[in-house]
Amino acid sequence: MMRIVKHPILGDLEDQKQVTIIVDGKAYPSYEGEMIAAALTNNNIKTFRYTKHLHKPRGIYCGIGRCTDCVMIVDGIPNVRTCVTPVKDKMNIETQYGVGQWTGGAKNE
């Protein structure tokens, strides 16, 4: 794991509820409320999507929700920015290919 537990400015990592996320069919540990991109990075997952035309891998880039490099399919919804979307227990996350395909899932709440 790559999680920072002691940070010189932010301090120590607070206790958080551990949950499980499902990424491309495989279960991974995470903490409820942390951003999906952080959970993926902590589990050594670096490729979140592939571009439409050249099929190039993309992962975390800006980290503030402005670009679209980190988008993935989350609970059936394509183009979810993982750097600003918090983890929930049993969340289903899939690598996105191109612009993503709508497969259902919850609509905007």
Q: How many distinct helices?
A: 1
Q: Indicate the structural class.
A: mainly beta
Question: What global shape is seen?
Answer: globular
What's the CATH C level? Alpha Beta
Q: How much is the radius of gyration in Å?
A: 14 Å
Number of strands: 10
Largest sheet: 5 strands, mixed
* C-alpha termini separation: 33 Å
By CATH's scheme, which homologous superfamily applies?
2Fe-2S iron-sulphur cluster binding domain, sarcosine oxidase, alpha subunit, N-terminal domain
Strand order of the largest sheet: 4-3-9-7-8
CATH fold description: Ubiquitin-like (UB roll)
SSE order, one letter for each helix or strand: EEEEHEEEEEE
Mean pLDDT: 88
Oligomer: single chain
Regions with little confidence, pLDDT below 50 for 5+ residues = none
What distinguishing features does this structure have?
5-stranded mixed β-sheet; mainly beta; 3-stranded mixed β-sheet; 1 helix; 109 residues; Ubiquitin-like (UB roll); single chain; globular
What is the fold's blueprint, element by element?
Layout: E1 6-7, E2 11-12, E3 18-23, E4 26-31, H1 36-42, E5 49-50, E6 57-58, E7 71-74, E8 77-81, E9 92-94, E10 96-97
Parallel strand pairs: 3-9, 5-10
Antiparallel strand pairs: 1-2, 3-4, 5-6, 7-8, 7-9
Describe the fold and architecture.
By secondary structure, this protein is mainly β. The protein has a single domain, classed as Ubiquitin-like (UB roll). The chain contains one helix and ten strands. It has a five-stranded mixed β-sheet with strand order 4-3-9-7-8, with helices on one face. A hairpin with a 3-residue loop joins strand 1 and strand 2 (11-12). The protein is globular, with a radius of gyration of 14 Å. The N and C termini lie far apart (33 Å).
